[in-house]
Automatic annotation (TrEMBL):
Protein name: Carbonic anhydrase
Species lineage: Bacteria, Pseudomonadati, Pseudomonadota, Gammaproteobacteria, Moraxellales
Top-level taxon of origin: Bacteria
Protein function: Reversible hydration of carbon dioxide.
Domain Alpha-carbonic anhydrase per the UniProt entry, residue ranges: 22-239
Length: 239
């Protein structure tokens, strides 16, 4: 039995919900490319996550977001907690619309900023009608309780494959900070099949979550769920 969230990107079938007995986990993350021939992209040259440093000033345009929709459910995928959204929210990037599908959580953070790791990172995953992906990432440091996360954290499913409905009207825009300055780079999915061509937007404003909130997530996962930092190579990181 398994649950899966799937779509097509650049001709590849992608699932972000995996099942018990999946052929990858975070213990063998450095060997994903050899685990399955479908994961050969994990050895690519434009992989995520990265350490964001040595950025190039590019006068990036303000993000164009239409986030007037609500979260509908939270699922325990075994690799993360995934929050699915009702249709309607979108991000305009490079003159193209990307539609918000879900967000999920990593602890500790996957991306670093100038060598610094954070206790938690949230990925808002968007897909265009052509199947291309864009991810907005938010970093969380330990601090005050995050009221925006409270409703979801109160119903986090404890069992693999379990899904709980979210009845509170949590608008997607409530998870965003007031300041939307960001870093921009090209990368990949951070889990197999590690498909490249993903547009990454990492917000500069660091959010806060309490030690109890961070601890509740890590306890449910039972293990770190972050992929190691990948080489930047010849890529430019814009800000």
């Amino acid at each position: 039995m398994f649950l899966k969230y799937s779509f097509t990107i650049m001709g590849l079938f992608v699932s972000t919900i995996l099942w018990a007995g999946a052929d990858w986990d975070y213990n063998n993350s450095r060997d994903w490319a050899n685990t399955n021939q479908k994961y050969q992209a994990c050895a690519g040259v434009n992989q995520s996550p990265i350490d964001i440093r040595d950025t190039v000033s590019a006068h990036l345009p303000p993000l164009k977001l239409n986030y007037h929709t609500t979260a509908k459910s939270v699922q325990n995928t075994g690799h993360t907690m995934q929050i699915d959204f009702n249709k309607g929210a979108s991000l305009e990037l490079d003159g193209q619309n990307f539609y918000l599908e879900q967000f999920h959580v990593h602890s500790p953070s996957e991306n670093n900023i100038n060598g610094q790791s954070y206790p938690m990172e949230l990925h808002l995953v968007h897909a265009s009608e052509q199947g291309e992906l864009a991810v907005i990432a938010l970093m969380f440091q330990q601090g005050l309780e995050n009221e925006k996360l409270n409703h979801i954290w109160s119903v986090l499913p404890t069992k693999l494959g379990e899904s709980n409905q979210l009845y509170s009207k949590n608008n997607a825009d409530s998870y965003l900070p007031q300041r939307l300055d960001y870093y921009r780079f090209n990368g990949s999915l951070t889990t197999p099949p590690c498909t490249e061509g993903v547009r990454w937007v990492v917000l500069k404003e660091i959010q806060q979550a309490s030690s109890d909130q961070i601890g509740a997530f890590t306890q449910l996962m039972g293990h770190p769920n972050n992929r190691p930092i990948q080489s930047i190579g010849a890529r430019l990181i814009l800000e």
